[in-house]
Amino acid sequence: MGSTSETRTYDALLSTTLENWAKGLEDEITSSNAFFYMLKRSRSWIGLDALGERAKFSLRYKNTPADSFAGYDIIDTTPQDGITAAFFPWRQLATSLSINGLEEAQNSGEYRILDLLEEKANQSKDGIIEHFNKAILQGNGINTATAITTAYTSPTNNSVFVDPLPLLVGTSPTAGTIGSIAANISDGGVNWWANQRAADTGTNFASFLKDLDHMRNLCSKGVGGFHDLNITDQNTYELYMAALRSQNRFTDYTRADIPFDNVAFHRQPVVWDEFVPDTAGATTTQSATSGTWWMLNSKNIQCKYHNKTNFTTTPFIRPENQDAKTATILWYGALGVNARRKHGLLDAIDTTLAT
């Protein structure tokens, strides 16, 4: 009974330590990913106590009209259309953390085994961060380079992850179905469910900056103001920095409150990520002559997750036929938009421009 009690105490120590470690995992993940950091910073990283069949994103595509009146004029009280909802499927993510019997024997003693646990936990954390980042920015391009508009699909079990950014804010704004809504839907001749998109035509620094300003203004139309996050690939980021230097545009050059290497575009942060694909070429392979720049409005894009399964750890379990114990880290959530027209994509950017 002594050894059994010791083992159970030991397992409880491992599970408790892992649970305490996981409490800060959300902060570490969102602080290691510019996209999720901005969502959390703007309160668009939303926890829910219960999940419905699908994640609901309420949206308004038309405002209730207003009109002047005088004295006893009749005020129009006709109920108005214009409110609906987009629905995105819930997705699940898991990673495991295992310790085998030999590793336990080699690291006997409380402090040594906890050091080993921390090392393995950090390994799992880095795996989650990389997968989140790649799956959001590249979709199934992780498996097939040209599948960036398709949600990541596990080659092991065929499960799919959240809808990727190249689908939500893509090169074909009116194609397909996004959030259960046809992308080409319109009202009064206005397509209200299509993101902004243009292929850059800049031939020098000045025209490149002009194209950026134009895309920014397109994204500002309608209720909700200007965008507040810019994500680019490395080559485009370096092109933008060179353009700023050449134009002596050093005002608001950086945002000190953003924990990423960044410059500012109209006072909003510009960050680059190594996993940003070449959206114009529809591939994860970067091209020196085809850069990508996303302009996103955090008020109109959200990540919703289950409070009880937000990077939650399970207890360590030892299978009957294996000399090892394993715990898992689980996440349930969905990524979606509620106003695609507030987001923009400028791509096919010639990143070899020199003047």
Write a brief caption for the model.
The protein is built from 8 helices and 16 strands.
CATH class: Alpha Beta
How much of the polypeptide forms β-strand, as a percent range?
A: 25-35%
On the 0 to 100 scale, the average pLDDT is 86
> Could you name the CATH topology?
phage-related protein like fold
Task: Show the helix and strand layout.
Blueprint: H1 2-22, H2 25-31, H3 34-41, E1 45-48, E2 55-60, E3 83-88, E4 91-100, H4 101-106, H5 110-138, H6 165-168, E5 177-178, E6 181-182, E7 186-187, E8 190-191, E9 196-199, H7 205-220, E10 229-232, H8 234-247, E11 262-265, E12 268-272, E13 291-296, E14 301-313, E15 324-337, E16 344-349
Q: What can you see in these coordinates?
A:
There is one protein chain. With 355 residues, this protein is α+β, with helices and mostly antiparallel strands. The protein has one domain (2-60, 86-181, 197-349): phage-related protein like fold. 30% of the residues lie in helices and 25% in strands. It has eight helices and 16 strands. The chain has helices at residues 2-22, 25-31, 34-41, 101-106, 110-138, 165-168, 205-220, 234-247, and strands at residues 45-48, 55-60, 83-88, 91-100, 177-178, 181-182, 186-187, 190-191, 196-199, 229-232, 262-265, 268-272, 291-296, 301-313, 324-337, 344-349. The strands form five sheets. It has a six-stranded mixed sheet with strand order 9-16-13-10-12-11, sandwiched between helices. The chain has a four-stranded mixed sheet with strand order 1-14-15-4. Strands 2-3 form a two-stranded antiparallel ribbon. Helix 1 (2-22) packs parallel to helix 5 (110-138). The radius of gyration is 24 Å and the shape is globular. The protein starts with a helix and ends in a 6-residue tail after the last strand. The model is unreliable at 1-6 (pLDDT under 50).
